[in-house]
Amino acid sequence: MSENAGPLWAGRFSKPPAPEAEALGRSVEVDQRLAFQDLQSGIAHVAALHDAELVTAEEADALQAALGEVGNAIAAGSFEFDPHDEDIHSAVERGVTDLLGDLGAKLHAGRSRNDLVATDVRLYLLAITKSIDTDVRSLMRALVARALEHAAHPMPGSTHARPAQPITVGHHLCAHAWALARDRERLADWRVRASVSPLGAGALATSTLDLDPAATAERLGFDGVFQNSLDAVSDRDVLQEFLGLAAILATHLSRLAADLARWTDPALGWAELDERYSTGSSMMPQKRNPDTAELARGKAARITGDFVTLTALLQGLPIGYQRDLQEDKEPVFDAVDTLATVVPALLGAVATLRIDAAAMRAACEDPGLYATDVAEAMVRAGVPFREAHRRTGDLLKRLDVDRRTLRDLTDEEWAAEDVPDGAALLDPDRSIAARPGPGGPSPASVLAQCDALRASLGSEPA
To answer: Which CATH class is domain 367-436?
Structure first.
């Protein structure tokens, strides 16, 4: 423990913090997750101090070695946190000072915890979003692989959760993959804005010391450096935007999960989750519950809550650093942890899902699925669409009264409706093949979509 035990800022004060106030301000249990990034920042800052001739080469080597020693101790779980370590930044600096004495006290020259935490959290997210992107890519690959298996297998497509028109299973799965592709695009776009270093902004007004923030940014692997020091220490756009895109990603995951839960409903019998992604009931022995899908669906609400939490925290704050911002990291860490559990679980569920193509085809026997095909056949015969829509609806109404369906119409009745080959329309393969355009449900279109999706994914990660 340091001989000068107490907060880093204690010199101005004659009284120590009240225990309850100290407990309120302590965040090290949360932000010690940033330890590696804090050490990165510290090592880069030491190099800046050396460039400015504020420490000698020997002192710089000693400071960087001490940072490494502290880092090793934290990684090994042997680092002893001090009761006065308010946060990970205080703990690291105190650890270096314990090792080096007065030399360690030179570490913080020209920087503030304000610019340091803003730097650390950006470094953390830039690293962790690579893992998120890798997981999303894997889920997309699984969806594309299953889409290729079922590119030509018909199923009822739905609107308003009701049967609408025939599509293919592959088309449905590709829809989820395209949503994830947009999530990856948003993440890549976010990284452009996130890769800006705040280090060197100080508490709010930079420093009188001859430090070079651009050189520090380059050492840390950032693409740029802050344009305004006051903005740099108070900006949390990068966290808020991350949580926004995480909430959109979680929404897409929840919609995929909802489809898995629906498809595996025994009342439909279209698919079955592998036992490893299902659970039983504590009371009803027969149950196989789609808990993986249900939990993934529910976790979207949690991540949306994280976004709302940070947004509520930020709105109304004046420009500059405020201690309220200590609360910015918990929702970010929660969203990261939640995505790290949800995406792999859904990947496993999708990859092992047993799809009953025959049951889905049988569901396409519903003649109501082909009402639009009938109306469009009338359009091809020259009937205005609104008239064709009205006539088809009137036909269905009359058939309902007679307790009949489109499949019960005779050739003569079809001809009377100006659809002479109407019986041939009631076929899922024909209906799907008749929609060969880009982005449509035909097998050829699905194969083209899979090719495009695979191209967007690039080669397998190393």
So the answer is: mainly alpha
